[in-house]
Design a protein that fits this description.
Layout: H1 10-20, H2 36-41, H3 43-47, H4 55-64, E1 67-69, E2 79-81
Antiparallel strand pairs: 1-2
Amino acid sequence: MARVVRQISSGGEQFIVATANTRPERLGRPFTRWSIRKLADHRHLRAACRIVVGRERLRHMLHQHRITYVGAHFPQRLFGLR
């Protein structure tokens, strides 16, 4: 059975990118840095724009916008522009 791939609008993508570039504390989240998991689970992504996005799609989207994530094996766990 073929899997249906949901299209994310450019507005939805811009919303995700803006969220990734905003400190979680400013959005009322109890942590200081985003991780891929935290960003994908962030309820505002689903509540404000009703966007459902998986971790791999999110990682790819952030890569396209030159936003990187330093993995968990590094002490600096943050997003940043290249």
